[in-house]
Amino acid sequence: MFESRSRRCFLATVGRGTLLATLGPALAVDLGLVARGFADDAGQPLYFEGLEPLIAMMQETPVEHLQTNLAAKLSAGLPLKTLVAAGALANARTFGGEDYIGFHTFMALSPALKMSAQMPKGSEALPVFKVLYRNTKRIQEHGGRDSETLHSLATATLNSAPSEAALHDAIRKKDMNQAEQVLSALVSVDPRSGLDALIPAVQDNPEVHRTVLPYRAWEMQEIVGTEHALTLLRQSLHYCLKAESSRRAEWDEHGQMLTTLLDEFHLNGKEPGTKPAEDVFVQHLSHAFATSTPLDAARAAASALSEGFQPAVIGEAISLAASLLVLRDGGRLPQYEDRLKPAGCVHGDSVGVHASDTANAWRNMAQVSSGRNVFACLIIGAWQVARDRSYPGNLLAQPLPAAHHLNRLSGLDSDALLIKLDEAIQNNLQAHATAVMQKLSETSLPPERVFSSLLRYAVSEDGALHAEKYFYTVWDDFHTTRRSARWQHLISLSRVTASEFGKPAAGQEEARQLLGLS
């Protein structure tokens, strides 16, 4: 089973952070308590002790030979987790959060490893091989070792104490050197301080990649270790800095809206509430997020937080509103179709998939951040899902499934419905797949069986850069949403799965042969 997300996964570094705050950045480096990637070798290639040969292999091996090497490493006893760690660090130093395919691939690595835990015995490596193949292919297209974006930093020499405001100011000024110095100083004391300082910059322009990348970078510490927190978070910093060249006036409006709502609802300095919510309240709040203007949705979130409801309650409602967008998506318009995303599809960079990944990131960052950011993440999350609904597009008047599809499935038991689900997916019948899943939700079938049915397609199909990330978004949202509402996430996943079928992932056939699978 995947491990459910919780604060303890990320707050295990807090005690360490207290110690580092006492020692200070320079002594912490000397004692080996933080990575020496920002010591005295500024401008030199990043070097990762212990993993370096494997990381270099990920960057330098021609992609047509990569999976043979990966299979040999696996046969020799190297854990999948180590392969993913090496792939993540190879990706980070190559792209630094500045390449579209590169950062999408980075964000798929942790979900791929989690998916491997659900695979049938003997095939655990398939999702990991799939993403590592994409990773090395893009690294080589980018220029390999000669085109690395991230390099070592000098030890921070700042005139004042590093702070969230100092980082934000350096980003606004597009001062890469100063911004990296501030971030490195914050991370050297406590990695969570670095994340907390980045979040306000992320909130400047709430869009899917700017939102999801810092959370996936933070999450990656579970795989590569907290000593690499700076390298991981620098990706998000570079993304924000690069985006400053297209800064617009509305970015400042997001900050003003947050400040206004935090003041109006007296959330500054307030501790997050612990009040649980009845199912009907979550349904009402989710409906508000799914139908209101962005500002009204943000106000509804701020109001619920001021009433003392648990942050997780607001997170549930945001994710449910996002999954509803998957079920209302009219599909890709013909003028935007391409080889992997035909007209009518809803996988890849569709409004619903993007909204769901974004909502999942905001609700998780609210769990691992502190102070003002706990409230700000959820207020912006509610604002963003309402804004996503208002994008010009092709939304259906009513969400799927339709009544006539449901009526055709009356009287079928769970085993028959699972067969129907496969038929709908393999024939790209998106609406029919949602009806089958709705009927499955009314049976006593364990959800693990349904996830297993959908997992194999998330691995076998290309998914246009989003298959792994979205699959795990749904898994996480399902297991952190109340029983009365959580199947909506699986209904959405069934539609996306039916949409993406028929475009096999590159390298998967070779991977199956190397692993001895039929």
Give the structure's gist in a few sentences.
By secondary structure, the protein is an all-alpha fold.
Describe this structure in words.
The protein is an all-alpha fold. Helix content is 64%, strand content 0%. Residues 1-40 have low confidence and may be disordered. It contains 27 helices and no strands. It has helices at residues 7-10, 14-23, 25-30, 52-60, 63-75, 80-95, 100-116, 126-142, 164-172, 176-189, 191-204, 208-219, 221-224, 229-243, 249-264, 279-291, 294-306, 311-328, 351-368, 372-389, 403-407, 414-426, 430-441, 447-460, 467-479, 487-500, 508-514. Helix 16 runs antiparallel to helix 17.
Q: Structural class, from helix and strand content?
A: mainly alpha
Straight-line N-to-C gap? 24 Å
Write down the secondary-structure element order: HHHHHHHHHHHHHHHHHHHHHHHHHHH
Average pLDDT reading: 91
Roughly what percent helix? 55-70%
Shape designation = globular
Task: Please work out how many helical segments DSSP would assign.
Answer: 27
Uncertain segments? 1-40
Spatial extent as radius of gyration:
23 Å
List keywords for this structure.
518 residues; mainly alpha; 0% strand
Topology diagram in text:
Blueprint: H1 7-10, H2 14-23, H3 25-30, H4 52-60, H5 63-75, H6 80-95, H7 100-116, H8 126-142, H9 164-172, H10 176-189, H11 191-204, H12 208-219, H13 221-224, H14 229-243, H15 249-264, H16 279-291, H17 294-306, H18 311-328, H19 351-368, H20 372-389, H21 403-407, H22 414-426, H23 430-441, H24 447-460, H25 467-479, H26 487-500, H27 508-514
